[in-house]
Inverse folding.
């Protein structure tokens, strides 16, 4: 969509992901800078955001909420219970509350704010360049037209997928939320390996990154199962066969599965902890 909506949005939390969303909204012309508010504890950060984007930035969370139709919760998980207590009496019935906080369940946010219309999103790091993936869901109280507005907002950062089951957002936290760090770790390891066998650092960086980008685009363009693509480049006794054998010996796939499972379990643990803190008044 390119039609300008002039939505009034207030960000509670003014860190990296909040700024990513702000940049996307402004770049796509969804709403003008004077309609965007961002609050955080540091005045120097507020000044930085005002200078860089021309938005309304403040150190007063209630000010950001008062001027918004959509309130985006973008704080660290450990500060959420305090923020919910602070905002509870300022959230109006017509507000839509969006959360990009890892592990924070909609029931916890709804209970803490005494407010039913909640959207939970899990964007990832490539959203910084509008190539991200955001998995999101919403409570039944969020109407179809409002969900379309949310979709419009999230599309400013890249692709988005709505899921009806909130547990898929926890899974997304482990996969597409954690995935960029895992992929970056793999890139570094592959560059190091290329350097180990004699490639220069500049050559290794360029060749590794283009190989990964090209392979991803090939997989997207193909209707074949990824296993077929692997088989297509693997000749018996060849270089790829030898390399894959070493990866199998090192339990590459099993270690990756364990890593994603650990991230998923941590997301669930964080949700359980926040639930106990908010419902228990901690």
């Amino acid at each position: 969509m390119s039609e300008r909506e002039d939505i009034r949005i207030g960000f509670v939390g003014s860190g990296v992901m909040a700024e990513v969303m702000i940049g996307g909204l402004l770049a796509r012309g969804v709403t003008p800078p004077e309609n965007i508010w961002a609050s955080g504890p540091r005045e120097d950060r507020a000044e930085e955001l005002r200078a860089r984007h021309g938005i309304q930035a403040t150190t007063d969370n209630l000010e950001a909420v008062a001027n918004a139709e959509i309130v985006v919760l973008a704080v660290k998980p450990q500060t959420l219970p305090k923020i919910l207590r602070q905002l509870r009496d300022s959230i109006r019935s017509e507000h839509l509350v969006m959360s990009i906080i890892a592990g924070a369940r909609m029931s916890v946010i709804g209970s803490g704010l005494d407010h039913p219309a909640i959207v939970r999103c899990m964007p990832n790091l490539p959203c910084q360049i509008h190539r991200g993936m955001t998995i999101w869901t919403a409570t039944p109280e969020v109407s179809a037209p409002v969900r379309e507005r949310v979709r419009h907002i999230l599309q400013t950062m890249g692709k988005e997928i709505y899921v009806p089951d909130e547990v898929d957002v926890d899974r997304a936290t482990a996969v597409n939320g954690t995935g960029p760090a895992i992929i970056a770790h793999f890139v570094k390891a592959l560059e190091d390996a290329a350097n180990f066998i004699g490639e220069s650092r500049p050559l290794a960086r360029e060749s590794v990154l283009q190989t990964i980008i090209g392979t991803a685009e090939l997989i997207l363009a193909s209707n074949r199962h990824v296993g077929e693509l692997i088989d297509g480049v693997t000749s018996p006794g060849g270089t790829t066969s030898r390399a894959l054998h070493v990866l199998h010996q090192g339990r590459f796939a099993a270690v990756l599965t364990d890593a994603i499972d650990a991230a998923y379990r941590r997301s669930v643990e964080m949700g359980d902890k926040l639930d106990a803190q908010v419902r228990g008044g901690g």
